[in-house]
UniProtKB/TrEMBL annotation:
Name this polypeptide is given: VWA domain-containing protein
Compositional bias of kind Low complexity: 91-108
Location of the VWFA domain: 207-376
SMART domains in the cross-refs: VWA
Region ranges (Disordered): 81-127
Record InterPro entries: UCP010256, Uncharacterised_CoxE, VWF_A, vWFA_dom_sf
Length: 387
């Protein structure tokens, strides 16, 4: 078995995936793992697994997390019970396995050490290649462990919003609309009191606020998790306001701040009491407009709405509240995974009422489909009516 790619990147990426999954893996354990690989030169995936257990865990209770992430990264499979019937599910490698009631492959399911190990023909893939292998798969078909593997790639993405003029100004040499008398006189001290150079002031430019509203109903839960992870990894929460809704609106900005994605998503589920419930888009939009939008949170902001448009309430209310929001926001981008189908048409329900008020509608159903979303947030994507 050969290890392709940079060993440091491999170990660092695998350690980050374990850390996101809840295993306290720090630089010291990752260094021990890398040293064990260098000294032992494992010739099979099972030997590499034994190295990982010996260096990255400190008690048997941590084996389950390590085994689950190791399988997803190096062996390329996940719990077969979760993927049964999914044609996109990754194939099983190695010997056939059975699952315990917990759903994850147990230690006893692995090839026995008493049997001769079969040669591993394919080289062990790195964390980066494993994530790239999942990049084209629909978020709805990914397990939480597989979604965590995409965090490294999501961190490379840059979420940018259009710039706007700030009320604050700064000194410039040319093209300023007003003179900066104080700075001009202060600099004139160097030239005997003669203002040889006039200083002007110009408004500062700053990115527009990003406001995200994520539908966490049952049909949208996998996509909401992916979008929340994207906001955490690529943009953080310093310039983003995050809300979730199903039957009610929940503000998650503080919950998602300053914590790793796995813990942040767990907290998001606890903070949103209607996680995986029904969907009342119109009521949630009205609550946002009444409590936050008209008070300035949405004024001049880029609003990102993640929902499939299934409305259990009155679709006419969706249209009214979207019209209110459009008058406040600079731009509205709607993420609807169902639009990935070329035959999709917004004919009924909440999506039909919201469509005329959206500046762009994108699917963003996979990592490979996120670029149109990033372009839409910047304002470079065409209007929804022109797509």
């Amino acid at each position: 078995m050969s290890l392709r790619g940079d060993l440091a990147s491999l170990v660092a990426g695998f350690g980050a995936a374990l850390h996101d999954a809840g295993l306290p893996v720090g630089p010291d354990r990752s260094e021990r793992f890398a040293r064990a690989i260098t000294l032992l030169r494992p010739q099979s995936t099972d030997e590499l697994h034994r190295c990982a257990r010996a260096t990255l865990t400190c008690n048997p209770e941590q084996f389950e997390i390590l085994d689950r992430v190791f399988d997803a990264v190096f062996r390329g499979y996940v719990d077969p019970a979760d993927e049964r019937g999914d044609p996109n599910a990754p194939g099983m490698t190695g010997s056939s396995t059975t699952t315990q009631s917990g759903g994850t492959p147990s230690v006893s399911d692995r090839p026995s050490t008493s049997e001769p190990e079969r040669a591993v023909e394919a080289p062990v893939s790195t964390v980066g290649s494993a994530a790239e292998r999942l990049a084209g798969r629909d978020f709805a078909g990914l397990s939480p462990e597989e979604l965590a593997l995409l965090a490294d790639l999501m961190r490379r993405l840059a979420i940018a919003t259009p710039l706007r003029r700030s009320r604050r100004t700064h000194a410039v040499q040319h093209q300023g609309k007003s003179f900066d008398l104080r700075t001009t006189l202060r600099r004139a001290r160097r030239t005997g009191g003669e203002p040889l150079r006039l200083t002007r002031r110009s408004p500062r430019m700053k990115p527009r606020r990003l406001v995200a509203l994520c539908d966490i109903s049952g049909s949208m839960e996998p996509y909401a998790r992916a979008m929340l992870q994207l906001l955490y990894c690529a943009a953080g929460t310093s310039r983003a306001e995050v809300f979730t809704f199903a039957t009610r609106l929940t503000r998650l900005t503080k919950v998602l701040a300053r914590t790793r994605p796995a813990v942040a998503l767990e907290r998001a589920g606890r903070a949103a009491p209607d996680w995986s419930g029904g969907t009342r888009i119109g009521a949630a939009l009205k609550q946002f407009n009444d409590q936050y939008g008209r008070r300035g949170l949405a004024r001049g902001a880029v609003v990102l709405i993640v929902s499939d448009g299934w409305e259990t309430g009155d679709p006419a209310q969706v249209g009214r509240e979207m019209a209110r929001l459009a008058r406040l926001a600079h731009r509205i981008v709607w993420v609807n995974p169902r639009t990935q189908s070329p035959r999709y048409q917004p004919l009924v329900g909440g999506m039909a009422a919201a469509w005329p008020h959206c500046d762009a509608v994108v699917s963003a159903h996979s990592l490979a489909a996120l670029q149109p979303l990033l372009d839409a947030l910047q304002g470079s994507a065409p209007h929804a009516a022109h797509q």
